[in-house]
């Protein structure tokens, strides 16, 4: 399962939104990755996400494989679209 989403919050995926994202991703059993700026990282790793340097306007792909992949991708896309509550 793969879906693309645009990061809309002003500060991109800095430490706070990245930690919220990782916490949500860790609630699922599936293997989840984020692909952005030509790199792919484990979505359950805060250091991996921060290493991407995702800023406002970047498109990211959320990719999951496993038993709850669809639910995981949909929940994470929804989180990004909500601008992490900022």
Architecture overview:
- The protein is α+β, with helices and mostly antiparallel strands.
- The chain has helices spanning 15-25, 46-52, 69-81, and strands at 2-6, 31-36, 39-42, 59-65.
- Strands 1-4-2-3 form a four-stranded antiparallel sheet, covered by helices on one side.
- A hairpin with a 2-residue loop joins β2 (31-36) and β3 (39-42).
- The longest helix has 13 residues, at 69-81.
- It is globular, with a radius of gyration of 11 Å.
What's a concise summary of this model?
By secondary structure, this protein is an alpha+beta fold. The protein has 3 helices and 4 strands.
Key phrases:
86 residues, alpha+beta, 3 helices, globular
Work out the helicity level: 25-40%
Rg: 11 Å
N-to-C CA distance: 27 Å
Q: Please mark out the parts with pLDDT under 50 across 5 or more consecutive residues, or reply none.
A: none
Strand tally, please?
4
Q: Walk across the major sheet and give the strand order.
A: 1-4-2-3
β-strand amount? 25-35%
User: How many helices?
Assistant: 3
**In one word, what is the shape?**
globular
The biggest beta sheet, please? 4 strands, antiparallel
What pattern of helices and strands is seen along the backbone?
EHEEHEH
